[in-house]
Amino acid sequence: MSSMLPMVQPRSGMPERVTIYEVGPRDGLQNESTRVPTEVKAEFVRRLVAAGLDTVELTSFVPQRWVPQLGDAEELVAALGPVGVGRQRPVLVPNERGLERALEAGVSAVAVFGSATETFARKNLNRSVAESVDMFAPVVSRALDAGAWVRAYVSMCFGDPWEGPVPVEQVVDVCARLMDLGCDQLSVGDTIGVGTPGHVERLLDALEEVGIGVDQVGVHFHDTYGQALSNTVTALGRGVSVVDASAGGLGGCPYARSATGNLATEDLVWTLTGLGVEHGVDLDTLVETSGWMAGHLGRPSPSRVVRALSG
Ligand code: MG
Asked: What residue ranges define each of the domains in the chain, with the CATH number in brackets?
């Protein structure tokens, strides 16, 4: 397809390089009702890596009954062979059992998934926020003891579909409790996509005030209200250099009415390319991959860039 690219025009205050933390195979596929065969998932990961995405979150070691789509975690890691191991192939682990399974499979990077709000902690983890931190504590310490890299996701950082606005202090408190466990990286999630740039700056400042510097923070924005890229550029301007994105924009948020969820990796790559920020991704190869995956899922990608370049 077309090799249209933006004109490169650097802007001051941007990082030299951004690490794209690709979440498509996990966050993107987890809510898909059509069961994707393990070999297709493995091919998806291989293609993403071939497109230049260094960091790809593979799957989640959740019990199969929770997320049937990701019930093949062991099989996927095995199918990937050498492509599936290393610190740039994290997996989600919901609890100690999940961690055990991941470590047995040869995984060396894991992520836990916390919530900034009580309602979502109850709905997603069946626990209060405090109880969920207690549950993650042994997971994180055992992972670190095993030499694994650990990421802490915090969802609902900019708003909650049941509680509405979420106070920044409350978000920072949850983030600090998780980072105090010894996690290597924090990913602040705008799960319903309601955040705006000033809010992003306020949260990053508040995190810095409690000692969580931008070098430890990744941002996970959703495009539900069309804010993901402006929020991303704002975060980059504050020194963040890890951005979560999902190839083709896979992964609608099940808690928001709109189907538009994760920031599409292609849309992010377009912006970074235009800004002259290094990212290592070949856009055409990535667009082709998302088109291929959309074919397996039976519907078009919601990514603007994928649509523009496939039109
Ligand atoms: Mg997401």
From this structure: 19-310 (3.20.20.70)
Distance in angstroms (rounded) separating the CA atoms of residues 127 and 104: 27
CA atoms of 255 and 102, how far apart (whole Å): 28
Distance 235 CA to ligand 1 centre (A): 17
Find the 275 Cα to ligand 1 centroid distance in Å.
24
Q: Is the pTM of this model over 0.85?
A: yes
Q: Is residue 253 among the annotated active site residues? A: yes
Q: How far is the CA of 143 from the centre of ligand 1 (A)?
A: 23
The CA radius of gyration of the chain, in Å to the nearest whole number, is: 18
* Residue partners of 146: CB distance under 8 A and separation at least 6: 103, 108
- Cα(251) to centroid(ligand 1), Å: 7
Per-residue pLDDT of the chain (311 residues; tens, 9 = 90+): 457 899 999 999 999 999 999 999 999 999 888 899 999 999 999 999 999 999 999 999 999 898 999 999 999 999 999 999 999 999 999 999 999 999 999 999 999 999 999 999 999 899 999 999 999 999 999 999 999 999 999 999 999 999 999 999 999 999 999 999 999 999 999 999 999 999 999 999 999 999 999 999 999 999 999 999 999 999 999 999 999 999 999 996 555 454 469 999 999 999 999 999 999 999 999 999 999 999 999 889 999 999 999 96
Q: What is the DSSP letter of 77?
A: H
